[in-house]
Amino acid sequence: MADKTEDLARFGTFGGVFTPTLLTILGVIMYLRLGWVVGNAGLLGGLVIILLAFAITGATGLAMSSLTTNIRIGAGGAYAIIAQSLGLEVGGALGIPRYISQALAVTMYIFGFRAGWLYVFPQHPEWAVDFGMFAAIFGIAFVSARFAIQVQYVIMAVIVGSLLSVGWAAFDGSMQYSLDSVDLWGSFSGVPEDMSKSTAFWHVFAVFFPATTGIMAGANMSGELKNPKKSIPLGTMAAIGVSLVIYLVLGYWIARSATTAEMVTNYRVMIEKAAWWPAVVAGLLGACFSSALASLVGASRILQAMGDHRVVPKGEWLEKITEGGEPRNALWVTGGLVFASLLLRDLNAVAPLITMFFLITYAMLNVVVLIEQSIGLVSFRPLLKIPRWVSGAGLIGSAFAMFIISPTVSLISVGVVLAFYVYLTGRTRELEPSFQDVRSGLFFTVAEWAAKQTTELPEEQERAWKPNLLMPVRDPSTVRGDFSMVRSLTEPQGSVKLLGIADQFEPDRLDRDLGDLTRSFRHRGVFATSSVVNSVGFEEGVTSGMQTLQGQFFRPNILFMHLPDPMVDEEAHRGIIDQAVAGSVGVLIYVRHPKAGLGEQAAINVWVHDRSPDWELSWDLGNLDLSLLVAYKLKENWDATMRIITVIDDPEERQEAEDFLEQVCLVARMPEAERLVVADSFHSYLPMAPHADLNVFGLLEDPQFEFMRSVSDQTESSCLFVQDSGNESVFA
User: Fold this and answer.
1) Statement: 592-732 belongs to CATH 3.40.50.620
2) Using CA atoms, how far apart are residues 469 and 88, in angstroms rounded to an integer?
3) Which pLDDT score is estimated for 151?
4) How far is the C-alpha of 249 from the C-alpha of 646, rounded, in Å?
5) What is the pLDDT of residue 464?
6) For residue range 665-722, what is the model confidence (pLDDT) as tens digits?
7) Where exactly are the structural domains of the chain?
8) Helix (H, G, I), strand (E, B) or coil at 643
9) pLDDT recorded at residue 65
10) Residue 61: which of 359, 362, 294, 361 has the closest Cα?
């Protein structure tokens, strides 16, 4: 799809970016509210408002321009830029409300057109004007974007004519008031509808600021530009610069051509002070028509791009374009949305929300640049480089403007974006971007910083412990058999490292199978990775892999293995266990019962060895910390019962043993664990112990594998034999 769009690209800087951006900025507010702004704020105050508003959008324009010179931008404008930087989830979370607001903006421009039309033809029905204009712009957009651009050239000429009418008035003596008689700072007297209520500087700013939010009109055509890397920066910044000059000149002209009372009480003062008022009315109508047309064309292209990425439902239908490159399906949907909103007849309630979604988009563009600039990846080398303070100013300014205009609506708009983000995050696996984003670099930078900070800590952080399993794998089928157990041990914060030992399987086949297994773990919420070691022997492969992985920051801290085959791999297993203990890696030897498996996953027994005569509780529990931690994690994930059992030889030690277990459960924060002290011999009591789906034992210094098999048989359950690493503590 991207290549096809690329082949159909045909617009240059002037027609594709500069013209729609300039015409969108020079809109209703310029013709009907600029005089009111200057009348309330005074000449100096009005110019400050204009400069401040353009400073915010100018900084955002520079940030967007910098980004477009660094990526191969596709269709969708700001949506495409953010999606390629922060991923489809963030791009879609902003793109969906941005699309809706862009479509609703069409309706707002139609209502503005109606106001100007009824000024000339007050007898015409409002609904006829609205739907007549909608039919006109939809028809133009339906024909082609090229036709829409050609129409905008005509509108550009009309707007230039309106400005020439103003210029002729100034030349003809309309600026009759000297600077000495002009209010430099206004009294903020209010609105014509209710002059009894005064206003404030920031309220006037909030009224004017939406005039400058049209800087994305050209970027929305990104998929159909011959050279977007050149056209978007040049066209956007040129349009911002030209429109800024026009607003400043018009503000100066109106301040010297009308009294403060005229400006504050008459929204049409600019029309009345021009040399030929019909030219200004034509400019107003042309500006509304052009803005509505550009918004309709741009919105349909945003929707088509989101459909292409499957961000929205029915994406395979919405992504389709004609042979001429027109997104007709997306245009039909957008037209339907605009038509439905016209039936409401009044969008004043959602008008601030439209502006908010524009501002959130601007803020995120600045965030993207700040992130790229801060993490310092080599991949960020834009042709247009901007100082970090520019993107920072754009971010602060956009956020500031949001909460100045309406704190309540700002919070609602942020909530809407977050809701879309949560929705899209739940569909992450359905989103298949055709590009890479910057998130991996961002996460790597954060992880690298965390790693550096952690290495400066004085000792092993027992409170940060979580199970990171290393699983040596000869045959991938064994992992499938252990899948439930491993997932229960590591979910949700642990991890699994599958270490393939290619002494029986072909390395490529083993690597492929392990890759499938890691994806299965991830799909079920467990982070997993895999690697394959070519080795002539199991012990050599596991030992070398384990030693290599110990150099990593996120290193495995538990070795997870099965019992060895009798008389074949026992010595190799002992060697591997010794290497793990020497490397401060915990050990779990899993004995899976051939019939019972993990049973109902309803009960776990943890066996504590007889500590007689020393039942004094201390920080050193011996080889018991990892057993309790593993059992507790399984208990939580299984919603099971946990039982701690100790068998003592001397009945007189019963009370001390019971006190010891009670203190362990209290300090370890496991008060719900059942405690059982039995005076008997271990071998005699084992077959009579309360049934559990898993029994957990300490691993002897000299592992007796045949004994482990017999324990599983006697308990009729699967068993875990555990050796602490020394770096975990159940009391932490």
Assistant:
1) yes
2) 31
3) 86
4) 90
5) 67
6) 988 888 889 999 999 989 899 999 999 999 999 998 888 888 999 999 999 999 999 9
7) 2-430, 459-586, 592-732
8) strand
9) 86
10) 362
- Tell me the fold of 2-430: Amino acid/polyamine transporter I (1.20.1740)
Contact 558, 588 (CB under 8 A): yes
Region at 529 (left for phi over 0; alpha for psi -120 to 50; beta for the rest): beta
CA distances to 420, 429, 731 from 426, in Å: 10, 8, 36
Q: Tokens in use for 507? A: 């390395």
Hey, what are 431's tokens? Answer: 């989103």
pLDDT value of position 216: 76
Query: What would the DSSP string read from start to end of 388-440?
Result: HHHHHHHHHHHHHHHHHH-HHHHHHHHHHHHHHHHHHHTTGGG---SS--SHH
The one-letter amino acid at 165: S
- pLDDT value, residue 325: 78
Amino acid (one-letter) located at 463: R
What is residue 189's predicted lDDT score, i.e. its pLDDT? 81
Phi, psi at 323, each rounded to 5°:
-65, -25
What single-letter amino acid sits at 60? T
pLDDT at position 84: 74
Query: CA 257 to CA 170: how far, in whole Å?
Result: 8
CA–CA separation, 195 vs 161, rounded Å?
A: 34
**730, 624 in Cβ contact below 8 A?**
yes
Please report the pLDDT score of residue 94 as a whole number: 83
Which residues of the chain register pLDDT less than 70?
A: 1-9, 74-77, 193-196, 223, 345-351, 375-379, 426-464, 503-505, 536, 551-554, 567-568
Same fold yes or no, 2-430 and 592-732: no
The predicted structure's pLDDT at residue 6: 44
- Residue 685's pLDDT is 92
H helices present in 309-327, as ranges: 315-318
Q: In the sheet that 718-723 helps form, which strands lie side by side, from edge to edge? A: 527-533, 495-501, 468-473, 558-562, 586-591, 718-723, 694-698, 603-608, 641-648, 674-679
Q: pTM score, two decimals?
A: 0.66
∠439-370-554 over CA atoms, to 5°? 35
pLDDT tens digit string along 355-366? Answer: 788 888 888 888
Helix (H, G, I), strand (E, B) or coil at 686: helix
DSSP, collapsed to helix, strand or coil, labels residue 558 as strand
β-pairing verdict for 718-723 and 586-591? antiparallel
Nearest-Å Rg of the Cα atoms of the chain is 36
- Three-state DSSP state, 535: coil
Alpha carbon 403 to its chain's center: 22
584: left (phi over 0), alpha (psi -120 to 50) or beta: left
User: How many CA atoms lie less than 13 Å away from 443 in the CB half-sphere?
Assistant: 7
pLDDT value at position 89?
Answer: 78
Strand-pair category, 718-723 with 641-648 = unpaired
Annotate 608-674 with three-state secondary structure.
ECCCCCCCCCCCCCCCCHHHHHHHHHHHHHHCCEEEEEEEECCHHHHHHHHHHHHHHHHHCCCCCCE
| 169/391 Cα distance (integer angstroms) | 40
Report whether CATH 3.40.190.100 matches the domain 459-586. no
Round to whole Å and give the CA distance between 433 and 232: 23
Contact assessment for residue 254 and residue 260, using Cβ atoms and an 8 Å cutoff:
no
